[in-house]
């Protein structure tokens, strides 16, 4: 069976700066992968490459066996039409550090929006499903609230429900708890734990080592655009092999 | 008071503190300023009422004259039609300006350069001369076959040219206002929409433009009011059936320019006032979700849930509590 995500020497440049210097990584179906590393190490950029928010400059990146952002025909790569790229993204949910909820729509309308607009679902059907999802993240009673009226933790849970509404096969989390007050981190992590327990394939950029230790099947430590070390989270956290990993982990404590 | 407190039941009802009824702060400055302004206004009104030059009898005679009211209606039509043209074209120009397509970007820039770079009066004169420059209009495939043939010199299209002249000029300004509005929406909104699989057009229509409206509306209201007054320049086309042109024509016959100017000014002011009310409601509509304050409907739902009637005059100030958990 093909892995959900297969990265083969993925490179990404911003102008003259090489942010990703050949990332090779594999994420199996139903697994949770946590990406850790110092800021500027390229974790978020790599995550954004997976749903083609950033285009890959070299190497190959496959999601569910399909090349991301390009079509390979006759030994040549062709840029995808934006319509095709949008189609690829439909099946990949993304949760952002700053939630990015639509502030002019209620929590319910935020969740209903994409299924109706993109998947052409019937509004009644999408609304019913949205209420289920809000209930699942514990916010059934906040359906009519606007994002500005919700706490950060509540907003992030709505954002997770919004991503789930597209029935994704893969969920990407870009530092989902970094913008939250410490006492609100738990409610978001517990929603993510439920999701993982339900068999969702997840890639999580995070600084929450407790979550990584408990939930992740694979832990990846990145620094300066390369994967320094990857493997079982408990083994990696308690017994890091590389000097850079050791330094990073010791700075966290 | 006693009725209110008795309606609250429960163990804490007796311990609830009495509402604060403080003596309001005195503000003598406001009273003094009010008196000074009232005296000045009274002096001005007395002067205006007794000055022969104003000819209030003629003012009253012409204020609701049929020619004037018809001209006011023409002015409103000119304003609204030109503004609709300007907003639609402005959206197209702004989106072109922000488009990834370099051809569209350049076309939009050149349009702005020309229409913002020349006076509206000059443009209106040009539109008046348009039939003299292009004697006929042919729609079809150039040099091959024409489907429609319009003789521009044969039709009387001064009103149409006035609308086009005002609208095309205003579109350049509207494009900049709309572009600024689009730019005010955070990048994360585009990213979130893209990540959900929305196309560029869907993102614009459903996510960006509704949020940009909040920034776009106040200056657009400004432009609309400005447009109302710019219509007085369409005499350049020449078109004179609008308010100012009509008032000037009448005063040309009866040699009473001052009362007729006042008549026109009164109508401009009245129309502007109506437009300002419309702007208020539009702004309120597009500020949805902006504030943490709860809407009246949400407050009522919260009050219902607590089993208390909503106290009058205290709406709005309540921040959401942690009562959800």
Describe the protein's architecture and organization.
The complex is a heterodimer of chains A (253) and B (325). Chain A has 253 residues and is α/β, with parallel strands linked by helices. Chain A has helices at 43-50, 82-90, 107-117, 123-136, 152-164, 182-197, 209-215, 233-238, 243-252, and strands at residues 5-14, 17-27, 32-36, 58-63, 66-67, 70-73, 76-79, 92-95, 170-174, 201-205, 218-223, 226-231. A six-stranded mixed β-sheet of chain A has the order 8-9-10-3-11-12, with helices on both faces. A four-stranded antiparallel β-sheet of chain A has the order 2-1-4-5, covered by helices on one side. The longest helix of chain A has 16 residues, at 182-197. The N and C termini of chain A lie far apart (39 Å). Chain B is mainly alpha-helical. Helix content of chain B is 67%, strand content 4%. Chain B contains twelve helices and two strands. Chain B has helices spanning 2-7, 28-50, 56-63, 66-98, 102-117, 120-133, 158-183, 187-195, 200-230, 243-254, 257-286, 296-306; strands spanning 136-141, 145-151. In chain B, strands 1-2 form a two-stranded antiparallel sheet. In chain B, strand 1 (136-141) and strand 2 form a beta hairpin. In chain B, helix 3 (56-63) crosses helix 11 (257-286). Chain B is flat and about 90 Å long. The interface between A and B is medium-sized, with 39 and 29 residues.
């Amino acid at each position: 069976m093909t892995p959900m995500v297969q990265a083969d020497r993925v490179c990404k440049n911003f102008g003259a700066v090489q942010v990703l210097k050949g990332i090779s990584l594999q994420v199996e179906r139903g697994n949770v992968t946590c990406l850790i590393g110092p800021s500027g190490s390229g974790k978020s950029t790599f995550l954004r490459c997976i749903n083609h928010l950033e285009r890959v400059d070299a190497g190959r990146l496959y999601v569910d066996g399909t090349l991301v952002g390009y079509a390979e025909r006759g030994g040549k790569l062709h840029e995808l039409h934006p319509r095709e790229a949008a189609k690829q993204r439909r099946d990949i949910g993304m949760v952002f550090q700053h939630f990015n909820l639509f502030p002019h729509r209620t929590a319910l309308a935020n969740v209903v929006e994409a299924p109706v607009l993109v998947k052409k679902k019937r509004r009644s059907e999408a609304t019913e499903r949205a209420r289920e999802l809000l209930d699942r993240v514990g916010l059934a009673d906040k359906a009519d609230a606007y994002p500005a009226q919700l706490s950060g933790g509540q907003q992030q849970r709505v954002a997770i429900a919004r991503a789930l509404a597209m029935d994704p096969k893969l969920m990407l989390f870009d530092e989902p708890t970094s913008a939250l007050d410490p006492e609100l981190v738990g409610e978001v992590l517990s929603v993510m734990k439920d999701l993982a327990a339900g068999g969702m394939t997840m890639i999580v950029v995070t600084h929450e080592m407790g979550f990584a230790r408990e939930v992740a099947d694979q832990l990846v430590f990145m620094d300066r655009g390369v994967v320094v070390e990857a493997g079982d989270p408990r083994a990696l956290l308690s017994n890091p092999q590389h000097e850079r990993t050791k330094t990073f982990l010791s700075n966290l404590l | 008071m006693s009725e209110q407190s008795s309606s609250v039941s429960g163990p804490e009802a007796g311990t609830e503190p009495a509402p604060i009824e403080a003596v309001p702060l005195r503000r003598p400055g406001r009273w003094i300023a009010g008196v000074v302004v009232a005296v000045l206004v009274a002096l001005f009104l007395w002067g205006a009422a007794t000055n022969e030059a104003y000819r209030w009898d003629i003012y009253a005679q012409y204020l609701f004259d049929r020619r004037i009211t018809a001209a006011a209606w023409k002015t409103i039509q000119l304003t609204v039609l030109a503004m609709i043209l300007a907003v639609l074209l402005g959206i197209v120009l702004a989106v072109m300006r922000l488009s990834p397509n370099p051809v569209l970007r350049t076309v939009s820039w050149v349009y702005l350069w020309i229409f913002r770079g020349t006076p509206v009066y000059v443009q209106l004169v040009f539109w008046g001369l348009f039939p003299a420059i292009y004697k006929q209009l042919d729609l079809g495939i150039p040099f091959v076959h024409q489907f429609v043939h319009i003789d521009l010199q044969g039709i009387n299209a001064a009103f149409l040219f006035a609308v086009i002249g005002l609208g095309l000029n205003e579109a350049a300004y509207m494009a900049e206002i709309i572009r600024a509005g689009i730019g005010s929406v955070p990048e994360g909104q585009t990213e979130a929409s893209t990540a959900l699989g929305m196309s560029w057009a869907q993102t614009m229509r459903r996510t960006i433009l509704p949020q940009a409206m909040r920034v776009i509306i106040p200056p657009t209201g400004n432009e609309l009011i400005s447009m109302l007054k710019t219509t007085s320049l369409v005499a350049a086309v020449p078109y004179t059936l609008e308010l100012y042109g009509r008032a000037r024509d009448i005063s040309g016959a009866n040699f009473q320019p001052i009362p007729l100017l006042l008549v026109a000014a009164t109508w401009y002011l009245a129309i502007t006032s109506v437009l300002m009310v419309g702007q208020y409601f539009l702004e309120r509509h597009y500020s949805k979700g902006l504030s943490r304050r709860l809407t009246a409907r949400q407050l009522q739902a919260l009050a219902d849930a607590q089993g208390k009637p909503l106290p009058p005059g205290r709406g709005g100030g309540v921040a959401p509590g942690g009562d959800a958990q």
